[in-house]
Prior knowledge:
The structure holds 2 protein chains of 2 kinds. Chain A is mainly beta. In chain A, about 0% of the residues lie in helices and about 55% in strands. Chain A has strands spanning about 5, 10-15, 20-25, 30-40, 40-50, 55, 65-70, 75-80, 90-95, 105, 110-115. In chain A, the strands form 2 sheets. In chain A, strands 2, 4, 5, 6, 9, 10 and 11 form a 7-stranded mixed sheet that branches. Chain A has a 4-stranded antiparallel sheet with strand order 1-3-8-7, with no helix packed on it. In chain B, strands 2, 4, 5, 9, 10 and 11 form a 6-stranded mixed sheet that branches. A 5-stranded antiparallel sheet of chain B has the order 1-3-8-7-6, with no helix packed on it. Chain B has no helices and 11 strands. Chain B is an all-beta fold. The chains are: A mainly beta, B mainly beta. The interface of A and B includes residues 98, 99 and 110 of A.
Amino acid sequence: DAGVIQSPRHEVTEMGQEVTLRCKPISGHNSLFWYRQTMMRGLELLIYFNNNVPIDDSGMPEDRFSAKMPNASFSTLKIQPSEPRDSAVYFCASSLGGHTFGNTIYFGEGSWLTVV
Amino acid sequence: EDQVTQSPEALRLQEGESSSLNCSYTVSGLRGLFWYRQDPGKGPEFLFTLYSAGEEKEKERLKATLTKKESFLHITAPKPEDSATYLCAVRADRGSTLGRLYFGRGTQLTVWP
C-alpha cells in the first residue's frame, strides 16, 4: 500500500522564487498535515486540513506561505517569495480522523528545500 | 506553554548495551503520547501510542512506558540497525476539536558493533 507521496524530494531555488511542494495523502485518509523540520526548531506543524478544509493554519509562518487542498488526494504548499530562512525539510502527513484521540499520523519522505 | 523535552540529545551504545530514552512533557490534558523513529533522509515512522499512565507497549527490542509526567523508550540489547533519531510527540486537548501535536527535538541514537 502506498504511503504519503511528496514531490519534489529535493529543491534548490534562488531567493525570491516561488516554490510549490506537492503531497498525495494515503488513500482513505481524511486529514492532511504539513510540517516543517529544522535543526533549530525541530518538527513544527504548519497547517492541518480535515476533509479538505483548513482547520488550523496558526503555524504558517507568514503570508508568504499558503496551502491548498483542492481534493482528497492532493495538497500543495506554496512559498512566494522564498527566502533563505525557509530552507528546511517539509513533511506532509496524513491520518484517518485528524488529531483526535488515538489517530496515528503517517509521514511522507519529505521535501528538502534549499533557498540560496 | 506546553513543552516536550527529550533527553539525552544523543546517545551512543555498544551493540547489546541496553538503555533508555526519556521524554518529559508539561502539556495539560494529555490525549496521547507518540513515539516515532526517523532515519536520515526519511520521514518519521510511527512506533507507539500511549494514552494513560502505567501503559506499556512493546515492539521487538523496544518498550515504551508512560507516567503522568514522562515517557521512556527502553531499548534492550540494541543492534546497529536500531540507530536512528527517536522522536516523542504529545497531543493535548484544549477544549477545541483540534489537539495540536507537539514534537520533542529527538534523541539521536547510534549503536556500534
